[in-house]
TrEMBL record:
Residues 1-16 form the signal peptide. It catalyses: leukotriene B4 + NADP(+) = 12-oxo-leukotriene B4 + NADPH + H(+); (5S,12S)-dihydroxy-(6E,10E,12E,14Z)-eicosatetraenoate + NADP(+) = 12-oxo-(5S)-hydroxy-(6E,8E,10E,14Z)-eicosatetraenoate + NADPH + H(+); dodecanal + NADP(+) = (2E)-dodecenal + NADPH + H(+); 13,14-dihydro-15-oxo-prostaglandin F1alpha + NADP(+) = 15-oxoprostaglandin F1alpha + NADPH + H(+). The keyword Translocase does not apply. Its main location: cytoplasm. This is Prostaglandin reductase 1. Its EC number is 1.3.1.48, 1.3.1.74. Residues 47-366 form the Enoyl reductase (ER) domain. It comes from Thrips palmi. It is found in: Cytoplasm. It holds the Pfam family ADH_zinc_N. GO terms for cellular component: cytoplasm. It comes from the Eukaryota. InterPro entries: ADH-like_C (IPR013149), ADH_N_2 (IPR041694), ER (IPR020843), GroES-like_sf (IPR011032), MDR_fam (IPR045010), NAD(P)-bd_dom_sf (IPR036291), PTGR1 (IPR014190).
Amino acid sequence: MLLRRALLAGLSTTVARVPLVQPLRPRALSTMAPPAKVIYMAKNFAGEPKPTDFQLKEEQLPDLKDGEILVEAEWMSVDPYMRAYMVRYPPGTKMIGGQVGKVLVSKNKGFQVGDHVVGYLGWSTRTIVNPDSTRGDMTKGDLEKVRHLDVPLSYNLGVLGMPGQTAYFGLLDLCQPKAGETVVVNGAAGAVGSLVGQIAKIKGCRVIGFAGSDSKCEWLKKSLKFDFAFNYKTCNILNALRESAPNGVDCFFDNVGGTMSSVILSQMNLFGRVAVCGSISSYNADMKDPPLAPVVQPSLVFKQLKMEGFVVSRWRDRFAEATDQMHAWVKEGKIVYQEHVYEGFENMPHALIGMLRGENTGKAVVNVSKL
């Protein structure tokens, strides 16, 4: 069930008075874009992002040039990587992120008015982009048409989008799980982790998840059919693994980092495989004094582990493969997908902060369709 977190304030419009009689003259179809609301990072984040770190502006967009399209956002995504990536940019930078939207105006032969598209257009209600010149650049738009219109559009930001592609390639290409093996995933109730565990079950694996609340763990076991799920805030990680994986761990999909990950590595089997997707435990930390974790080299050396970090854009040319397979699994009922929905563009900062705190079970998305 979608969770509603806030209500979008109503908008008022003012109609300008004009003379009753005006001279008739021919008019060309205008390519002038309507105003856009844009959210910027007003100052660099220090620790957990705060509402005062963001600035909302309304901006007039220019006329479209040949090759460009105007996209109006309908759904937006908030993801952990936004906190980590924004460290690279100066204050005054538009917040990065993915969105699903509709083409309002097109001067590109490949896109028609009314087409639904998904891309990295950032925190802007309306965006002008040239799909041809930004293709493959996930920092400048990288936009394409929605492939599957028989599921909710918001799915293209989750199970059929970046999180689904991340789970698919990170687990299958890097960990290469085999039927009967034991797979551990932390951040298991999030957008990526919840999909990793289900793909592992499809492949015939024993799946163990770590999440941040008892209710999330119940969801993982009852709805997603994880074999075991533990609340990392209240359990002893080592004892939990000894209970659930007495014969050791073969594959580990790491979203979190820190002490928990070091403990899991200590329980890996010989020639185990580790895919390092993220380090959300440290995203709000001061990198001038980074947090420390137990040493991992003994586990890597003596267990001869293969441990590889990755960014999903390396598989950009194969995204369609992942999207189509995830779509098939959803339609077949093999993957259960849940969203945590926030309402309203103005609530984007709240949604990001809430997601980083772990408010969401499943994928956090923001409905901005009522502009």
